[in-house]
């Protein structure tokens, strides 16, 4: 081997400090990611991850959809496609959105690799380092990670059991503007919010839209859980009331399957070109194969019934979790009562630090996500997110019972410490 082709010895430690771009400093593994390895051990009841429960999805049916697609349209499905997304799927996406009142033109839909990619594209075209993004308090960990990578300042706005508080939004806008920073958009999850499970009320939707329109702030409405309402349909999407100022994000991850990685953005026409160019420069085009799989599934299978069976599966698990919390958690704890989605948010007394408590929970064979994961500013030490989407109702009860013991012990220990101090 010549000197020119000789590779450096494998495994030699390299000091890369100073060689990364500045923005790489903001790239940190999320608290959820580092938890996954532990939480996925079979003996642990994981109330941590938000993985959709695919046990209700008939795999033989999916297999035949994929088989027929390749047999009949393989040459197209396995080829590059349009940067904006497959035209037929964009039409079908408009039918899906019509369930939440949206009347959209397929020309304004951009298909993405999961809605996570849409978040990345929006951040890329809007955020300069130091710009402000307003988000609910708490908010989706994956969005916080994306905003951090683009060096945004994330400002949290109060959320209560009716969703984002409009008055708090007004105050946040005033105080950010007083510092001279630009607010690029408000990011919110109006339906069965991740991580709180809260549903934004219809009158607050209107008020928030009015505030943002008046202040010239785009609203990014992230809606992966909107069709997963258990007890009644969700209110209309915010995009219904404002097609000029709302960027709507949708996903098939929770209503079909996340492995297909198909989501979308419905954007005001003025933004479309920039987003398509941004998407093409990162992925050329979304996968034709998975888009066409979804398209044939939507065309030939009873997808509305499938969503109804997912809702039934999650509702039973939600009920099991709420009952177990009632039975095993201390009276000083409070939690949300979600009408859909995957998550319950639990507030414990402030002397408890849920991150420090985590190793004890793992010993008790249960995992959750500490509240701080959902804040950009270290807030939320006394809170935790519990997801009910994956384990069986029996395992959920077992896990919440074990966690309840850990919390009781922690409270007793803290009480003891306080007496001594
Ligand atoms: C609120 C929210 N937005 C976006 C995503 C990303 O979804 P996708 O699988 O479509 O990328 C998730 C996934 O959990 C989510 O909870």
TrEMBL record:
Gene3D superfamilies given in the database record: Aspartate Aminotransferase, domain 1, Type I PLP-dependent aspartate aminotransferase-like (Major domain)
A Pfam family the protein falls into: Aminotran_1_2
Residue span, Aminotransferase class I/classII large domain: 65-403
One Gene Ontology molecular-function label: transaminase activity
GO BP, sorted A to Z: alpha-amino acid metabolic process
The protein's required cofactors: pyridoxal 5'-phosphate
InterPro entries reported for this sequence: Aminotransferase_I/II_large (IPR004839), Class-I_PLP-dep_aminotransf (IPR050859), PyrdxlP-dep_Trfase (IPR015424), PyrdxlP-dep_Trfase_major (IPR015421), PyrdxlP-dep_Trfase_small (IPR015422)
Entry keyword set: Aminotransferase, Pyridoxal phosphate, Transferase
Family classification: Belongs to the class-I pyridoxal-phosphate-dependent aminotransferase family.
Subunit structure: Homodimer.
Designated name of the protein: Unannotated protein
């Amino acid at each position: 081997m010549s000197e020119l082709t000789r590779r450096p010895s494998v495994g030699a430690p390299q000091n890369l400090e100073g060689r990364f771009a500045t923005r790489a400093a903001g790239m940190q593994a999320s608290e959820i990611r580092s938890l996954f390895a532990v939480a996925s051990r079979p003996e642990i009841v994981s109330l941590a991850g938000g993985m959709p429960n695919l046990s209700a999805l008939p795999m033989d049916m999916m297999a035949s959809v994929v088989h027929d697609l390749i047999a009949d349209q393989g040459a197209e499905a396995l080829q590059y496609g349009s940067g904006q997304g497959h035209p037929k799927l964009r039409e079908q996406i408009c039918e899906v959105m019509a369930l939440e009142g949206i009347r959209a033109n397929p020309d304004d839909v951009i298909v993405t690799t999961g809605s996570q990619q849409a978040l990345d594209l929006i951040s890329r075209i809007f955020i300069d380092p130091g710009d402000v993004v307003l988000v609910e308090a708490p908010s989706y960990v994956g969005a916080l990670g994306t905003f951090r990578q683009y060096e945004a300042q994330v400002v949290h706005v109060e959320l209560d059991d009716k969703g984002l508080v409009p008055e708090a939004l007004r105050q946040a806008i005033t105080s950010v503007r007083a510092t001279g920073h630009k607010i690029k958009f408000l990011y919110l999850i109006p339906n069965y919010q991740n991580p709180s499970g809260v549903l934004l009320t219809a009158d607050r939707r209107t008020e928030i839209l009015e505030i943002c329109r008046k202040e010239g702030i785009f609203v990014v409405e992230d809606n992966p859980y909107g069709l997963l309402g258990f007890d009644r349909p969700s209110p209309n999407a915010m995009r219904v009331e404002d097609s000029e100022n709302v960027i709507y994000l949708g996903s098939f991850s929770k209503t079909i399957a996340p492995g297909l990685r198909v989501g979308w953005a419905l954007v005001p026409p003025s933004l479309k070109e920039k987003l398509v160019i941004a998407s093409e420069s990162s992925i050329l085009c979304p996968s034709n194969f998975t888009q066409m799989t979804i398209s044939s599934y939507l065309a030939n299978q009873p997808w509305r019934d499938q969503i109804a069976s997912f809702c039934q599966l999650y509702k039973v698990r939600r009920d099991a979790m709420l009952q177990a919390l009632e039975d095993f958690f201390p009276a000083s704890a409070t939690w949300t009562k979600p009408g859909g989605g995957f998550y319950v948010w639990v507030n414990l007394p402030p002397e408890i630090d849920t991150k420090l408590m985590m190793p004890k929970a793992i010993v008790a064979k249960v995992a959750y996500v500490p509240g701080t994961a959902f804040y950009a500013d270290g807030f939320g030490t006394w809170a935790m997110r519990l997801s009910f989407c994956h384990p069986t109702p029996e395992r959920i009860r077992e896990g919440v019972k074990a966690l309840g013991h850990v919390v009781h012990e922690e409270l007793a220990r803290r009480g003891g410490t306080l007496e001594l101090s």
